Amino acid sequence: MEPISLAKALASFDALWSPRVVTTVNDYDVRVAKVEGEHVWHAHDHTDEFFLVLDGELHIALREPAGERTVVLPKGSVFTVPRGTEHRPTAPEGASILMFEPSGTLTVGDRHDEVPDHVDATTGHALG
């Protein structure tokens, strides 16, 4: 049990849209990822998804009953996508993010569009 440097964790890999699990809290993973470009439209039917922008800027497009909208998260911002809400994260100029979600949650959710090659459909990879 030692402190974990998020900067060192992020420096340990280069893959985009391929989160690493930095620690676990009860039954939840704390994951970090480097992102750039577009993810895929997807929804998590049974869990919310928490985002914290560590560096850069993240955009999250949302499909809600009132229509589509996009939230913009600059560095230091947090946002929670409610369970069941279709969303698509994008980072036009790249970003580093931290996510908090139940262990075993697939990065492309329970429902998703076709997964492009640049998106890693994973439940998170171990650091190192």
TrEMBL record:
Gene3D superfamilies: Jelly Rolls
Organism: Streptomyces spongiae
SUPFAM superfamilies: RmlC-like cupins
PANTHER family tied to this protein: 16.7 KDA PROTEIN IN WHIE LOCUS
Highest taxon of source: Bacteria
Segments forming domain Cyclic nucleotide-binding: 12-79
Name of a matching Pfam family: Cupin_2
Protein name: Cupin domain-containing protein
CDD domains, sorted: cupin_YdbB-like
